[in-house]
Amino acid sequence: MTDAMQKKTLADEGPKADALGEQAREFLDEGRFAEAEALYLQLTQKFPGARRYRMGYVRAAIEACRTLPETGRRREELTRYVVEKIADESGEGRLQAVRFLVALCSPMEGKNLLLQTVAHAASLKDLQASFQFIPRFVEHGERGALWSNLLSRLAAIAPSIEAPDRDAAIELKLRLLLALERFPDFIALFDESRAELENSTFLFLLQRVRDRLAGPRAEVFAEAKVFGIGLSRTGTTSLAKALTLLGIDAAHWTNPLTQQVISEIDMFMFGACTDCCVSADFEKLYYLYPNARFILTQRPIDDWVRAFWKHHERTSWVRDMDGFRRAFSKRPFPETAIEFALYTQSADVAQSYRCFEGRVQTFFADKPGTKLLTLDVFAGQGWPELCGFLERPVPELPFPVLNESA
Predict the structure, then answer these.
(1) Which residue(s) pair with 374 in the sheet?
(2) Which residue, 208, 302, 401, 402, has fewest beta-carbon neighbours within 10 Å?
(3) Which of 45, 66, 63, 43 lies closest to 53 in space, CA to CA?
(4) Taking the chain (406 residues) in consecutive chunks of 10 residues, what is each chunk's mean pLDDT?
(5) 161-194: burial string, b at 16+ Cβ within 10 Å, e else
(6) Do the beta carbons of residue 225 and residue 219 sit within 8 Å?
């Protein structure tokens, strides 16, 4: 069907198509994914040039696929569909395809499309989205060249960027310089542009990072940092949010400015860090930051095991330890190393949980009691325990309970 014929068909049957599209969206919102997939498939066959129907089809098909006993073949089919039908020549098409490939856990195809997007990025929106996805698909050693490419492209389009996007462009440049660890350039640009960042959602974090990078390093190592060393799915997201509400610049799992999984340099730059990237190395942090305090978030073990597999079934399409090992062997470092070290050295994840808790208790057994807090938000603990430990006043806000609640 030619474009002209398709436009005429869409115009003639527009009300009927819109009604079917609305019904498909309702099915999607209600969790009736197989029905939504079937309706969207009809619409894509009738109107193959209408991107919104192709996008709806992929969204519904991904969710419907999750209920299958064996998802591998269907995910391969959807990956091919995304590459062929969603990733057109526009930056928007490529980026939407990359988002779908993240959901499908298709790292090779995602990386290939991302590299094409970076190579052709011609707008601030393309640059921002490319920056976000680079750590998801690209190994650490390869990222520098891509970030430098984005920095060059940002400089090329900067003269044509109009307010209010100029502030967003400055923010992106700062984040790129930080990711490249060009710290003197980051500090100089921040100081030069501070007034233009007043409306940036990242201003507080940028300011705190700038101050640490610009000051004596011995003072940063002497800070009373906070490290949440509980395993994932034990309330680490809630803890990070609570620390933020207490005025502490906290990073959870990834550095929110660079999008990279938290590493040693991020622990230096932030006032608090949480999740298993911190758990993996807490003994070293104890001696590196002598005034730091540590919080072990806990959860009833059977509840934790269910939450662990529910999370990884959704994000990694795995339901057992063998699948877990295979999935994470394909991911960039340091994520792979962290999760392998914490979760795959025992026969099952329940034993991994017990081993880790034993490791923490053994290490802190002869340390001052003021150094470690055990916190169980699923048992109702929250502000009294946390604020008493950190010697801070209790906020009037309710304690945040995010992701998996009791």
Answers:
(1) 296
(2) 302
(3) 43
(4) 48 74 96 97 93 96 95 97 91 93 95 94 95 94 96 96 94 98 98 96 98 98 98 98 98 97 97 97 98 98 97 93 84 84 93 98 98 98 98 97 67
(5) beeeeebbbbbbbbbbbbbbebbebbbebbeebe
(6) no
